[in-house]
Amino acid sequence: MKVQSYLFFDGRCEEALEYYRLHLGAKIGMMMRFKDNPEPQQQPGMSAPSVADKVMHAEFSIGETTLMASDGYAQGKPEFKGFSQSIATKDDAETKRIFDALADGGQVQMPLGKTFYASSFGMVADRFGVPWMVITENSGAVKG
């Protein structure tokens, strides 16, 4: 069994994938646009010309994790609630680099800093609204 996150960017999927490629080293495995779907669309509005070039399905990986993504209904109002993606890095410099990249155009929810469980930890919603927690793994957790 495998559990994967599937992110719906509501019209900004390709932009998000490119941002993650540049700043997080994401590798795009596959991407299919609505116009490339071999079967007619069943849902209203999904065959409209304005949706044709939008991403129907994409698969990408960041480090060892594979995620999936889509433009969904491409309404331009993505909402990500009730979860957070978590990135664990090997050192504080990499944690800071990734946190700063995600914070660029986004919203810091908890500034990057030292905690009792890590030498660096912070929370941010990126420019697409995806919530992230960034932590330096095995860096300062209290052992008891």
TrEMBL record:
Pfam families: 3-dmu-9_3-mt (PF06983). This is VOC family protein. Transmembrane segments: none annotated. Gene3D superfamilies: 2,3-Dihydroxybiphenyl 1,2-Dioxygenase, domain 1 (3.10.180.10). Residues 2-135 form the PhnB-like domain. It comes from the Bacteria. InterPro entries: Glyas_Bleomycin-R_OHBP_Dase (IPR029068), PhnB-like (IPR028973).
